[in-house]
## 1
Amino acid sequence: MSLLVARGLTRRFGGVTAARDVSLSLAAGEMLALIGPNGAGKSTVFNMIGGQLAPDSGRVALDGADVTGLPPRALARRGMGRTFQVAQTFASASVLGNVRLALLVHHGHAFDLWRREAALFRAEAMALLDRLGLAAEADRPVAELAYGDVKRVELAIALAAAPRLLLMDEPTAGMAPAERAGLMRLVATLAREERIGVLFTEHDMDAVFAHADRILVLLSGRIIADGPPEAVRANPEVQRAYLGAAGLRAASRAGRPAGRGGAA
Ligand code: ADP
Ligand code: MG
Protein backbone atom coordinates (compact mmCIF):
# COMPACT_ATOMS: atom_id res chain seq x y z
CA MET A 1 0.00 0.00 0.00
CA SER A 2 1.17 3.52 -0.71
CA LEU A 3 2.18 5.58 2.27
CA LEU A 4 0.60 8.72 0.82
CA VAL A 5 -2.15 9.00 -1.78
CA ALA A 6 -3.62 12.30 -2.99
CA ARG A 7 -6.57 12.26 -5.38
CA GLY A 8 -8.01 15.16 -7.36
CA LEU A 9 -6.64 17.97 -5.22
CA THR A 10 -7.98 21.32 -6.43
CA ARG A 11 -7.57 24.77 -4.91
CA ARG A 12 -8.59 28.18 -6.24
CA PHE A 13 -7.52 31.62 -5.10
CA GLY A 14 -10.06 34.09 -6.50
CA GLY A 15 -9.92 33.60 -10.25
CA VAL A 16 -6.68 31.59 -10.17
CA THR A 17 -6.80 27.80 -10.00
CA ALA A 18 -3.51 27.18 -8.23
CA ALA A 19 -3.92 23.39 -8.30
CA ARG A 20 -6.26 21.46 -10.57
CA ASP A 21 -7.09 17.79 -10.11
CA VAL A 22 -3.66 16.85 -8.76
CA SER A 23 -3.18 13.18 -7.88
CA LEU A 24 -0.04 11.51 -6.62
CA SER A 25 1.16 8.59 -4.57
CA LEU A 26 4.30 7.97 -2.59
CA ALA A 27 5.70 4.72 -1.17
CA ALA A 28 7.80 4.22 1.96
CA GLY A 29 11.47 4.87 1.23
CA GLU A 30 10.71 6.76 -1.97
CA MET A 31 12.00 10.23 -2.94
CA LEU A 32 9.33 12.10 -4.94
CA ALA A 33 10.20 15.53 -6.35
CA LEU A 34 7.52 18.08 -7.22
CA ILE A 35 8.92 20.51 -9.78
CA GLY A 36 7.62 23.27 -12.02
CA PRO A 37 8.23 26.95 -12.76
CA ASN A 38 7.41 29.70 -10.27
CA GLY A 39 3.69 29.92 -9.68
CA ALA A 40 3.05 26.37 -10.99
CA GLY A 41 1.28 25.41 -7.77
CA LYS A 42 3.98 23.43 -5.96
CA SER A 43 3.54 25.09 -2.57
CA THR A 44 -0.24 24.95 -2.90
CA VAL A 45 -0.16 21.16 -3.45
CA PHE A 46 2.40 20.78 -0.70
CA ASN A 47 0.32 22.77 1.78
CA MET A 48 -2.85 20.81 0.99
CA ILE A 49 -0.99 17.59 1.77
CA GLY A 50 0.67 19.07 4.87
CA GLY A 51 -2.58 20.38 6.35
CA GLN A 52 -1.77 24.09 6.06
CA LEU A 53 -4.34 24.64 3.33
CA ALA A 54 -7.78 23.06 2.85
CA PRO A 55 -8.47 21.77 -0.67
CA ASP A 56 -11.63 22.93 -2.48
CA SER A 57 -11.97 19.33 -3.58
CA GLY A 58 -9.95 16.13 -3.50
CA ARG A 59 -8.74 13.76 -0.78
CA VAL A 60 -5.50 12.95 1.00
CA ALA A 61 -4.90 9.51 2.54
CA LEU A 62 -2.04 8.46 4.80
CA ASP A 63 -1.58 4.68 5.24
CA GLY A 64 -5.03 4.23 3.77
CA ALA A 65 -6.76 6.53 6.27
CA ASP A 66 -8.46 9.70 5.04
CA VAL A 67 -6.62 12.68 6.57
CA THR A 68 -8.06 15.43 4.34
CA GLY A 69 -8.33 18.72 6.21
CA LEU A 70 -6.59 17.53 9.38
CA PRO A 71 -4.35 20.18 10.95
CA PRO A 72 -0.54 19.74 10.92
CA ARG A 73 -0.39 18.60 14.54
CA ALA A 74 -2.83 15.78 13.93
CA LEU A 75 -0.88 14.79 10.82
CA ALA A 76 2.36 14.82 12.83
CA ARG A 77 0.88 12.33 15.28
CA ARG A 78 0.14 10.07 12.31
CA GLY A 79 3.74 10.20 11.12
CA MET A 80 3.84 13.18 8.77
CA GLY A 81 6.85 15.41 9.38
CA ARG A 82 7.96 18.65 7.81
CA THR A 83 11.14 20.67 7.85
CA PHE A 84 10.83 24.28 8.90
CA GLN A 85 13.00 27.31 8.42
CA VAL A 86 15.74 28.55 10.73
CA ALA A 87 13.31 30.71 12.69
CA GLN A 88 11.64 27.56 13.95
CA THR A 89 14.75 26.49 15.83
CA PHE A 90 15.97 28.23 18.96
CA ALA A 91 19.01 29.92 17.49
CA SER A 92 20.55 30.83 20.84
CA ALA A 93 20.22 27.28 22.17
CA SER A 94 22.76 24.59 21.35
CA VAL A 95 22.38 22.11 18.51
CA LEU A 96 21.99 19.34 21.09
CA GLY A 97 19.43 21.38 23.06
CA ASN A 98 17.30 21.92 19.96
CA VAL A 99 17.28 18.24 19.06
CA ARG A 100 16.62 17.17 22.66
CA LEU A 101 13.69 19.57 22.85
CA ALA A 102 12.27 18.08 19.65
CA LEU A 103 12.63 14.57 21.14
CA LEU A 104 11.01 15.69 24.41
CA VAL A 105 8.08 17.24 22.55
CA HIS A 106 7.66 14.11 20.46
CA HIS A 107 7.61 11.93 23.58
CA GLY A 108 5.30 14.28 25.46
CA HIS A 109 7.85 15.65 27.94
CA ALA A 110 8.08 19.24 26.68
CA PHE A 111 8.30 20.75 30.15
CA ASP A 112 10.90 18.39 31.55
CA LEU A 113 13.70 20.02 29.59
CA TRP A 114 13.64 23.01 31.88
CA ARG A 115 13.63 20.89 35.02
CA ARG A 116 16.15 18.39 36.34
CA GLU A 117 16.05 15.70 33.66
CA ALA A 118 19.14 17.02 31.96
CA ALA A 119 20.06 13.59 30.66
CA LEU A 120 16.66 12.77 29.20
CA PHE A 121 17.00 11.83 25.53
CA ARG A 122 20.59 13.01 25.50
CA ALA A 123 21.88 9.73 24.08
CA GLU A 124 19.10 9.63 21.49
CA ALA A 125 19.82 13.20 20.45
CA MET A 126 23.55 12.48 20.14
CA ALA A 127 22.83 9.40 18.04
CA LEU A 128 20.71 11.48 15.69
CA LEU A 129 23.36 14.22 15.46
CA ASP A 130 25.97 11.60 14.75
CA ARG A 131 23.80 10.22 11.96
CA LEU A 132 23.60 13.69 10.39
CA GLY A 133 27.29 14.45 10.79
CA LEU A 134 26.62 17.09 13.44
CA ALA A 135 28.09 15.43 16.54
CA ALA A 136 31.06 17.82 16.62
CA GLU A 137 28.67 20.80 16.66
CA ALA A 138 26.48 19.46 19.49
CA ASP A 139 27.35 22.12 22.04
CA ARG A 140 27.49 25.09 19.70
CA PRO A 141 24.60 27.56 19.53
CA VAL A 142 22.67 27.12 16.28
CA ALA A 143 23.21 30.84 15.61
CA GLU A 144 26.96 30.20 15.17
CA LEU A 145 26.62 27.47 12.55
CA ALA A 146 27.23 27.70 8.83
CA TYR A 147 24.02 27.80 6.81
CA GLY A 148 24.34 24.23 5.55
CA ASP A 149 24.69 22.97 9.12
CA VAL A 150 21.57 24.90 10.19
CA LYS A 151 19.67 23.07 7.46
CA ARG A 152 20.91 19.77 8.88
CA VAL A 153 19.75 20.83 12.36
CA GLU A 154 16.31 21.49 10.86
CA LEU A 155 16.38 18.02 9.39
CA ALA A 156 17.44 16.53 12.75
CA ILE A 157 14.53 18.31 14.46
CA ALA A 158 12.09 16.90 11.91
CA LEU A 159 13.58 13.39 12.28
CA ALA A 160 13.28 13.55 16.08
CA ALA A 161 9.55 12.95 15.62
CA ALA A 162 10.33 9.69 13.76
CA PRO A 163 8.25 10.60 10.70
CA ARG A 164 7.33 7.99 8.11
CA LEU A 165 6.55 10.73 5.61
CA LEU A 166 8.70 13.87 5.36
CA LEU A 167 7.65 16.99 3.43
CA MET A 168 10.42 19.37 2.38
CA ASP A 169 9.54 22.59 0.52
CA GLU A 170 12.76 23.76 -1.16
CA PRO A 171 15.10 22.20 1.42
CA THR A 172 18.24 23.57 -0.25
CA ALA A 173 17.05 27.15 -0.82
CA GLY A 174 19.89 29.57 -0.16
CA MET A 175 22.59 26.90 -0.02
CA ALA A 176 25.81 26.77 -2.03
CA PRO A 177 25.87 24.01 -4.70
CA ALA A 178 28.28 21.74 -2.80
CA GLU A 179 26.22 22.04 0.40
CA ARG A 180 23.04 21.31 -1.58
CA ALA A 181 24.43 18.09 -2.98
CA GLY A 182 25.52 17.00 0.50
CA LEU A 183 22.14 17.66 2.07
CA MET A 184 20.23 15.90 -0.69
CA ARG A 185 22.56 12.90 -0.48
CA LEU A 186 21.91 12.73 3.25
CA VAL A 187 18.13 12.93 2.81
CA ALA A 188 18.18 10.24 0.12
CA THR A 189 20.26 7.93 2.32
CA LEU A 190 17.93 8.44 5.28
CA ALA A 191 14.87 7.85 3.10
CA ARG A 192 16.23 4.53 1.89
CA GLU A 193 17.68 3.28 5.15
CA GLU A 194 14.84 4.41 7.42
CA ARG A 195 12.09 3.73 4.84
CA ILE A 196 10.87 7.33 5.06
CA GLY A 197 8.80 8.59 2.15
CA VAL A 198 10.05 12.05 1.12
CA LEU A 199 8.04 14.57 -0.90
CA PHE A 200 10.13 17.60 -1.84
CA THR A 201 9.98 20.66 -4.05
CA GLU A 202 13.24 21.91 -5.43
CA HIS A 203 14.54 24.50 -7.87
CA ASP A 204 17.92 22.89 -8.30
CA MET A 205 17.60 20.41 -11.18
CA ASP A 206 20.93 18.78 -10.35
CA ALA A 207 19.56 17.84 -6.92
CA VAL A 208 16.27 16.65 -8.41
CA PHE A 209 17.75 14.47 -11.13
CA ALA A 210 20.44 13.04 -8.88
CA HIS A 211 18.18 12.03 -5.99
CA ALA A 212 14.52 11.73 -6.95
CA ASP A 213 13.16 8.24 -7.62
CA ARG A 214 10.21 9.85 -9.33
CA ILE A 215 9.47 13.37 -10.57
CA LEU A 216 6.12 15.06 -10.85
CA VAL A 217 5.97 18.14 -13.07
CA LEU A 218 3.37 20.84 -12.44
CA LEU A 219 2.47 23.53 -14.93
CA SER A 220 -0.27 26.08 -14.24
CA GLY A 221 -1.68 23.90 -11.49
CA ARG A 222 -1.83 20.67 -13.53
CA ILE A 223 0.42 17.63 -13.55
CA ILE A 224 1.97 17.33 -17.01
CA ALA A 225 4.38 14.47 -16.23
CA ASP A 226 4.86 11.85 -13.51
CA GLY A 227 7.59 9.25 -13.80
CA PRO A 228 11.20 8.28 -13.22
CA PRO A 229 13.85 10.94 -14.02
CA GLU A 230 14.76 9.37 -17.38
CA ALA A 231 11.15 9.48 -18.61
CA VAL A 232 10.55 13.01 -17.37
CA ARG A 233 13.77 14.21 -18.96
CA ALA A 234 12.68 12.73 -22.29
CA ASN A 235 9.11 14.08 -22.11
CA PRO A 236 8.71 16.65 -24.92
CA GLU A 237 5.97 18.55 -23.10
CA VAL A 238 8.21 18.98 -20.08
CA GLN A 239 11.11 20.13 -22.22
CA ARG A 240 8.94 22.56 -24.18
CA ALA A 241 6.86 23.89 -21.34
CA TYR A 242 9.35 24.09 -18.59
CA LEU A 243 13.04 23.50 -18.77
CA GLY A 244 14.14 23.67 -22.36
CA ALA A 245 15.68 20.54 -23.81
CA ALA A 246 19.30 21.67 -23.55
CA GLY A 247 18.99 22.86 -19.97
CA LEU A 248 17.28 19.68 -18.88
CA ARG A 249 19.90 17.43 -20.49
CA ALA A 250 22.70 19.40 -18.92
CA ALA A 251 21.05 19.40 -15.51
CA SER A 252 20.33 15.69 -15.51
CA ARG A 253 23.83 14.79 -16.73
CA ALA A 254 25.48 16.94 -14.11
CA GLY A 255 23.47 15.37 -11.34
CA ARG A 256 23.91 11.69 -12.12
CA PRO A 257 26.78 9.26 -11.82
CA ALA A 258 28.95 8.94 -14.92
CA GLY A 259 27.42 6.85 -17.67
CA ARG A 260 23.81 7.13 -16.57
CA GLY A 261 22.90 10.46 -18.16
CA GLY A 262 24.49 10.01 -21.55
CA ALA A 263 21.59 8.49 -23.45
CA ALA A 264 19.39 11.60 -23.58
P1 ADP B 1 4.84 27.60 -6.62
O1 ADP B 1 5.08 27.13 -5.24
O2 ADP B 1 4.92 26.52 -7.65
O3 ADP B 1 5.70 28.77 -6.99
P2 ADP B 1 2.26 28.49 -5.60
O4 ADP B 1 1.55 27.27 -5.17
O5 ADP B 1 2.89 29.31 -4.54
O6 ADP B 1 3.32 28.12 -6.73
O7 ADP B 1 1.25 29.43 -6.40
C1 ADP B 1 0.40 28.98 -7.45
C2 ADP B 1 -0.52 30.09 -7.89
O8 ADP B 1 -1.46 30.39 -6.85
C3 ADP B 1 0.18 31.41 -8.21
O9 ADP B 1 -0.52 32.02 -9.25
C4 ADP B 1 0.01 32.19 -6.93
O10 ADP B 1 0.03 33.57 -7.19
C5 ADP B 1 -1.33 31.72 -6.43
N1 ADP B 1 -1.43 31.74 -4.96
C6 ADP B 1 -0.74 30.92 -4.12
N2 ADP B 1 -1.06 31.16 -2.85
C7 ADP B 1 -1.97 32.18 -2.87
C8 ADP B 1 -2.71 32.89 -1.86
N3 ADP B 1 -2.57 32.59 -0.56
N4 ADP B 1 -3.55 33.86 -2.26
C9 ADP B 1 -3.72 34.15 -3.57
N5 ADP B 1 -3.07 33.52 -4.55
C10 ADP B 1 -2.20 32.54 -4.23
MG1 MG C 1 6.54 27.58 -3.76
## 2
Amino acid sequence: MTLQSKTHTATAQAHPNIAFIKYWGNQDNRLRLPANPSLSMNLGDLRTVTTVTFSADLPGDALTVNEQPVVGPGLERVTTVLDLIRQQAGLELPARIESTNNFPAGAGIASSASAFAALSLAGAAAAGLDLDEASLSRLARRGSGSASRSVPGGFCQWLTGSDESSVAVSIAPPEYWDLRDVIVVVSQEHKAIGSTGGHHLAPTSSLQAARVAGVENRLKLCREALLARDLAALGPVIEEDAVIMHGVMMTSHPPLYYWNAATMTVIHATLQWRSEGIPVYFTIDAGPNVHLICEAADAPTVAARAGQLPGVQQIITSGPGGPVRLL
Ligand code: PMV
Protein backbone atom coordinates (compact mmCIF):
# COMPACT_ATOMS: atom_id res chain seq x y z
CA MET A 1 0.00 0.00 0.00
CA THR A 2 1.45 3.33 -1.09
CA LEU A 3 0.67 5.07 2.19
CA GLN A 4 3.24 2.89 4.01
CA SER A 5 6.14 4.26 2.01
CA LYS A 6 5.31 7.88 1.24
CA THR A 7 4.99 11.01 3.34
CA HIS A 8 1.40 12.11 3.83
CA THR A 9 0.43 15.40 5.33
CA ALA A 10 -2.68 17.47 6.08
CA THR A 11 -3.49 20.62 8.05
CA ALA A 12 -6.72 21.40 9.88
CA GLN A 13 -8.09 24.27 11.95
CA ALA A 14 -10.52 24.05 14.89
CA HIS A 15 -11.97 26.41 17.50
CA PRO A 16 -12.16 25.80 21.25
CA ASN A 17 -15.63 25.96 22.80
CA ILE A 18 -17.25 27.23 25.99
CA ALA A 19 -19.78 24.91 27.61
CA PHE A 20 -23.14 26.41 28.64
CA ILE A 21 -24.15 23.04 30.12
CA LYS A 22 -21.06 21.31 31.47
CA TYR A 23 -19.58 17.88 30.96
CA TRP A 24 -18.06 16.61 34.23
CA GLY A 25 -17.41 12.93 34.93
CA ASN A 26 -17.42 9.89 32.68
CA GLN A 27 -19.44 6.70 32.51
CA ASP A 28 -16.38 5.15 30.86
CA ASN A 29 -13.04 6.88 31.40
CA ARG A 30 -11.15 5.08 28.64
CA LEU A 31 -13.77 5.72 25.96
CA ARG A 32 -14.57 9.16 27.45
CA LEU A 33 -18.29 8.43 27.49
CA PRO A 34 -19.75 11.33 29.48
CA ALA A 35 -21.91 11.05 32.60
CA ASN A 36 -24.27 13.63 31.07
CA PRO A 37 -25.04 15.46 27.83
CA SER A 38 -23.56 18.95 27.39
CA LEU A 39 -24.02 22.03 25.21
CA SER A 40 -21.50 24.63 24.05
CA MET A 41 -20.60 27.48 21.71
CA ASN A 42 -17.52 27.30 19.50
CA LEU A 43 -15.22 30.31 19.92
CA GLY A 44 -14.57 31.60 16.40
CA ASP A 45 -11.88 34.13 17.26
CA LEU A 46 -9.67 31.49 18.89
CA ARG A 47 -8.00 28.89 16.71
CA THR A 48 -5.75 25.85 16.79
CA VAL A 49 -4.02 24.91 13.54
CA THR A 50 -2.52 21.42 13.40
CA THR A 51 -0.45 19.68 10.73
CA VAL A 52 -0.04 15.91 10.80
CA THR A 53 2.64 14.29 8.66
CA PHE A 54 2.96 10.50 8.53
CA SER A 55 6.49 9.58 7.56
CA ALA A 56 8.69 6.48 7.60
CA ASP A 57 11.65 8.74 8.46
CA LEU A 58 10.50 9.36 12.04
CA PRO A 59 11.59 7.20 15.01
CA GLY A 60 8.13 7.64 16.64
CA ASP A 61 5.33 10.17 17.04
CA ALA A 62 6.74 13.64 17.69
CA LEU A 63 4.61 16.55 18.91
CA THR A 64 5.22 20.28 19.09
CA VAL A 65 2.76 22.83 20.51
CA ASN A 66 3.59 26.44 19.63
CA GLU A 67 6.97 25.13 18.42
CA GLN A 68 7.85 23.60 21.81
CA PRO A 69 8.36 19.81 21.93
CA VAL A 70 5.84 17.93 24.08
CA VAL A 71 6.58 14.48 25.53
CA GLY A 72 5.03 12.34 28.30
CA PRO A 73 1.27 12.28 28.95
CA GLY A 74 0.59 15.08 26.42
CA LEU A 75 2.17 13.07 23.61
CA GLU A 76 0.57 9.81 24.80
CA ARG A 77 -2.91 11.34 24.47
CA VAL A 78 -2.13 12.39 20.90
CA THR A 79 -0.75 8.93 20.11
CA THR A 80 -4.00 7.34 21.42
CA VAL A 81 -6.01 9.25 18.81
CA LEU A 82 -3.46 8.66 16.05
CA ASP A 83 -3.46 4.92 16.84
CA LEU A 84 -7.22 4.84 16.23
CA ILE A 85 -6.65 6.58 12.90
CA ARG A 86 -3.75 4.24 11.96
CA GLN A 87 -5.89 1.22 12.86
CA GLN A 88 -8.75 2.40 10.66
CA ALA A 89 -6.46 3.31 7.77
CA GLY A 90 -4.29 0.18 8.02
CA LEU A 91 -1.27 2.43 8.44
CA GLU A 92 1.80 1.83 10.59
CA LEU A 93 3.81 5.00 10.07
CA PRO A 94 4.75 7.38 12.90
CA ALA A 95 3.64 10.99 12.67
CA ARG A 96 4.97 14.47 13.22
CA ILE A 97 2.28 16.69 14.77
CA GLU A 98 2.78 20.45 14.75
CA SER A 99 0.11 22.45 16.56
CA THR A 100 -0.18 26.20 17.11
CA ASN A 101 -2.77 28.28 18.93
CA ASN A 102 -3.57 31.92 18.14
CA PHE A 103 -4.49 32.48 21.79
CA PRO A 104 -1.74 32.97 24.34
CA ALA A 105 -0.34 29.81 25.90
CA GLY A 106 -1.01 29.80 29.62
CA ALA A 107 -3.90 32.25 29.27
CA GLY A 108 -5.98 29.70 31.07
CA ILE A 109 -8.05 28.89 28.01
CA ALA A 110 -8.33 25.15 27.52
CA SER A 111 -6.84 24.27 24.16
CA SER A 112 -7.56 20.54 24.34
CA ALA A 113 -10.95 20.83 22.61
CA SER A 114 -9.63 22.65 19.55
CA ALA A 115 -6.40 20.63 19.65
CA PHE A 116 -8.06 17.21 19.44
CA ALA A 117 -10.69 18.36 16.92
CA ALA A 118 -7.94 19.68 14.61
CA LEU A 119 -5.77 16.61 15.24
CA SER A 120 -8.61 14.23 14.34
CA LEU A 121 -9.35 15.89 11.01
CA ALA A 122 -5.71 16.53 10.02
CA GLY A 123 -4.70 13.00 11.09
CA ALA A 124 -7.59 11.30 9.28
CA ALA A 125 -7.00 13.31 6.10
CA ALA A 126 -3.24 12.66 6.17
CA ALA A 127 -3.98 8.93 6.56
CA GLY A 128 -6.26 9.02 3.52
CA LEU A 129 -9.51 8.59 5.47
CA ASP A 130 -12.60 10.54 4.47
CA LEU A 131 -14.54 10.59 7.77
CA ASP A 132 -17.98 12.14 8.24
CA GLU A 133 -18.72 14.63 11.03
CA ALA A 134 -20.00 12.01 13.50
CA SER A 135 -16.91 9.81 13.01
CA LEU A 136 -14.62 12.81 13.54
CA SER A 137 -16.53 13.89 16.64
CA ARG A 138 -16.22 10.35 18.06
CA LEU A 139 -12.48 10.31 17.31
CA ALA A 140 -11.90 13.75 18.87
CA ARG A 141 -13.85 12.62 21.96
CA ARG A 142 -11.20 9.97 22.64
CA GLY A 143 -8.55 12.71 23.05
CA SER A 144 -10.67 15.12 25.10
CA GLY A 145 -14.41 14.85 25.74
CA SER A 146 -15.14 18.49 25.00
CA ALA A 147 -13.26 18.15 21.66
CA SER A 148 -16.24 16.21 20.32
CA ARG A 149 -18.14 19.54 20.47
CA SER A 150 -15.46 21.43 18.49
CA VAL A 151 -16.03 19.25 15.40
CA PRO A 152 -19.48 20.52 14.30
CA GLY A 153 -20.07 24.28 13.89
CA GLY A 154 -21.76 26.94 15.99
CA PHE A 155 -23.75 25.79 19.02
CA CYS A 156 -23.30 22.06 19.66
CA GLN A 157 -24.81 19.38 21.84
CA TRP A 158 -22.82 16.28 22.81
CA LEU A 159 -24.99 13.25 23.37
CA THR A 160 -24.46 10.51 25.91
CA GLY A 161 -24.56 6.93 24.66
CA SER A 162 -22.31 4.17 23.44
CA ASP A 163 -18.92 4.55 21.79
CA GLU A 164 -20.82 4.64 18.51
CA SER A 165 -23.57 7.11 19.41
CA SER A 166 -21.82 9.52 21.81
CA VAL A 167 -21.04 12.33 19.35
CA ALA A 168 -21.76 16.06 19.14
CA VAL A 169 -24.20 17.62 16.71
CA SER A 170 -24.76 21.25 15.76
CA ILE A 171 -28.07 22.65 16.98
CA ALA A 172 -27.60 26.13 15.48
CA PRO A 173 -25.00 27.64 13.12
CA PRO A 174 -22.60 30.36 14.39
CA GLU A 175 -24.54 33.16 12.71
CA TYR A 176 -27.74 32.12 14.53
CA TRP A 177 -26.98 34.31 17.54
CA ASP A 178 -24.26 36.95 17.81
CA LEU A 179 -23.23 36.17 21.38
CA ARG A 180 -19.85 37.02 22.87
CA ASP A 181 -17.67 35.23 25.35
CA VAL A 182 -15.64 37.88 27.18
CA ILE A 183 -12.94 35.76 28.81
CA VAL A 184 -11.62 37.30 32.00
CA VAL A 185 -8.18 35.85 32.69
CA VAL A 186 -7.33 36.00 36.40
CA SER A 187 -4.60 33.36 36.47
CA GLN A 188 -2.19 31.88 33.96
CA GLU A 189 -0.89 29.20 36.28
CA HIS A 190 -0.91 25.57 35.22
CA LYS A 191 -3.67 23.68 37.04
CA ALA A 192 -2.52 21.11 39.61
CA ILE A 193 -5.28 18.73 38.50
CA GLY A 194 -6.51 19.04 34.92
CA SER A 195 -9.89 17.99 33.58
CA THR A 196 -8.92 14.36 32.87
CA GLY A 197 -8.01 13.85 36.56
CA GLY A 198 -11.08 15.86 37.57
CA HIS A 199 -13.45 13.60 35.61
CA HIS A 200 -12.08 10.62 37.55
CA LEU A 201 -12.83 12.40 40.85
CA ALA A 202 -16.40 13.43 39.95
CA PRO A 203 -18.05 10.23 41.29
CA THR A 204 -16.38 10.79 44.70
CA SER A 205 -18.61 13.83 45.32
CA SER A 206 -21.98 13.12 46.90
CA LEU A 207 -23.33 16.00 44.79
CA GLN A 208 -22.46 14.44 41.40
CA ALA A 209 -25.58 12.26 41.29
CA ALA A 210 -27.78 15.30 41.97
CA ARG A 211 -25.92 17.32 39.33
CA VAL A 212 -26.39 14.62 36.72
CA ALA A 213 -30.06 14.13 37.69
CA GLY A 214 -30.74 17.83 37.04
CA VAL A 215 -28.82 18.16 33.79
CA GLU A 216 -31.62 17.00 31.52
CA ASN A 217 -33.92 19.81 32.67
CA ARG A 218 -31.17 22.47 32.56
CA LEU A 219 -30.15 21.33 29.08
CA LYS A 220 -33.75 21.55 27.88
CA LEU A 221 -34.09 25.10 29.26
CA CYS A 222 -30.72 26.09 27.80
CA ARG A 223 -31.55 24.70 24.39
CA GLU A 224 -34.95 26.41 24.29
CA ALA A 225 -33.43 29.72 25.38
CA LEU A 226 -30.72 29.39 22.74
CA LEU A 227 -33.16 28.60 19.96
CA ALA A 228 -35.32 31.56 21.10
CA ARG A 229 -32.20 33.81 21.36
CA ASP A 230 -33.38 34.68 24.87
CA LEU A 231 -30.40 35.70 27.01
CA ALA A 232 -32.55 36.45 30.07
CA ALA A 233 -33.63 32.79 30.00
CA LEU A 234 -30.24 31.35 29.02
CA GLY A 235 -28.13 33.25 31.53
CA PRO A 236 -29.50 31.95 34.84
CA VAL A 237 -29.33 28.35 33.58
CA ILE A 238 -25.69 28.56 32.53
CA GLU A 239 -24.72 30.22 35.82
CA GLU A 240 -26.53 27.57 37.84
CA ASP A 241 -25.00 24.74 35.81
CA ALA A 242 -21.46 26.11 36.23
CA VAL A 243 -21.87 26.62 39.99
CA ILE A 244 -23.30 23.11 40.44
CA MET A 245 -20.28 21.68 38.60
CA HIS A 246 -17.93 23.64 40.85
CA GLY A 247 -19.91 22.39 43.86
CA VAL A 248 -19.12 18.85 42.71
CA MET A 249 -15.47 19.78 42.23
CA MET A 250 -15.19 21.36 45.70
CA THR A 251 -16.82 18.34 47.37
CA SER A 252 -14.75 15.67 45.59
CA HIS A 253 -12.19 13.57 47.47
CA PRO A 254 -9.68 15.20 47.34
CA PRO A 255 -11.52 18.48 46.72
CA LEU A 256 -10.77 20.64 43.68
CA TYR A 257 -10.85 24.38 44.31
CA TYR A 258 -10.35 26.03 40.95
CA TRP A 259 -11.62 29.50 41.97
CA ASN A 260 -9.37 32.16 43.43
CA ALA A 261 -10.22 35.50 45.05
CA ALA A 262 -10.36 37.30 41.70
CA THR A 263 -12.83 34.70 40.38
CA MET A 264 -15.19 35.70 43.18
CA THR A 265 -14.57 39.40 42.47
CA VAL A 266 -15.65 38.90 38.84
CA ILE A 267 -18.77 36.96 39.91
CA HIS A 268 -19.86 39.71 42.30
CA ALA A 269 -19.16 42.40 39.69
CA THR A 270 -21.26 40.51 37.13
CA LEU A 271 -24.22 40.45 39.51
CA GLN A 272 -23.72 44.17 40.17
CA TRP A 273 -23.58 45.07 36.43
CA ARG A 274 -26.72 43.06 35.85
CA SER A 275 -28.52 44.98 38.59
CA GLU A 276 -27.47 48.13 36.70
CA GLY A 277 -29.15 46.82 33.53
CA ILE A 278 -26.31 45.15 31.60
CA PRO A 279 -27.42 41.66 30.50
CA VAL A 280 -24.30 39.59 31.20
CA TYR A 281 -23.92 36.14 32.78
CA PHE A 282 -20.92 34.11 33.94
CA THR A 283 -19.72 30.58 33.42
CA ILE A 284 -16.47 28.96 34.60
CA ASP A 285 -14.64 25.85 33.33
CA ALA A 286 -12.03 23.77 35.18
CA GLY A 287 -9.97 26.79 36.21
CA PRO A 288 -10.25 30.22 37.86
CA ASN A 289 -10.95 32.28 34.73
CA VAL A 290 -14.45 33.62 34.19
CA HIS A 291 -16.30 33.59 30.86
CA LEU A 292 -18.82 36.43 30.60
CA ILE A 293 -21.60 35.71 28.12
CA CYS A 294 -23.41 38.69 26.59
CA GLU A 295 -24.78 40.03 23.30
CA ALA A 296 -22.23 41.52 20.86
CA ALA A 297 -23.47 45.09 21.50
CA ASP A 298 -22.69 44.83 25.23
CA ALA A 299 -19.28 43.13 24.86
CA PRO A 300 -17.17 46.35 24.72
CA THR A 301 -18.77 47.66 27.95
CA VAL A 302 -18.39 44.29 29.69
CA ALA A 303 -14.76 43.97 28.56
CA ALA A 304 -13.91 47.53 29.66
CA ARG A 305 -15.49 47.07 33.08
CA ALA A 306 -13.95 43.64 33.64
CA GLY A 307 -10.54 45.03 32.69
CA GLN A 308 -10.76 47.49 35.62
CA LEU A 309 -11.32 44.82 38.28
CA PRO A 310 -8.47 43.96 40.68
CA GLY A 311 -6.66 40.73 39.83
CA VAL A 312 -7.65 40.72 36.16
CA GLN A 313 -4.66 40.04 33.89
CA GLN A 314 -6.13 39.91 30.43
CA ILE A 315 -9.43 40.05 28.50
CA ILE A 316 -10.01 38.00 25.36
CA THR A 317 -13.31 38.32 23.48
CA SER A 318 -14.72 35.83 20.98
CA GLY A 319 -17.90 35.38 18.96
CA PRO A 320 -19.37 32.05 17.79
CA GLY A 321 -17.30 29.87 15.46
CA GLY A 322 -17.69 27.31 12.70
CA PRO A 323 -16.74 23.64 12.44
CA VAL A 324 -13.31 22.03 12.16
CA ARG A 325 -12.00 22.32 8.59
CA LEU A 326 -9.06 21.42 6.40
CA LEU A 327 -6.75 24.24 5.37
O1 PMV B 1 -12.77 17.85 27.59
P1 PMV B 1 -12.15 17.89 28.93
O2 PMV B 1 -11.78 16.53 29.42
O3 PMV B 1 -11.01 18.87 28.98
O4 PMV B 1 -13.25 18.41 29.98
C1 PMV B 1 -13.86 19.67 29.91
C2 PMV B 1 -14.55 19.98 31.19
C3 PMV B 1 -15.15 21.37 31.30
O5 PMV B 1 -14.46 22.29 30.49
C4 PMV B 1 -15.02 21.83 32.75
C5 PMV B 1 -16.64 21.38 30.96
C6 PMV B 1 -16.99 21.28 29.50
O6 PMV B 1 -18.08 20.73 29.24
O7 PMV B 1 -16.26 21.78 28.64
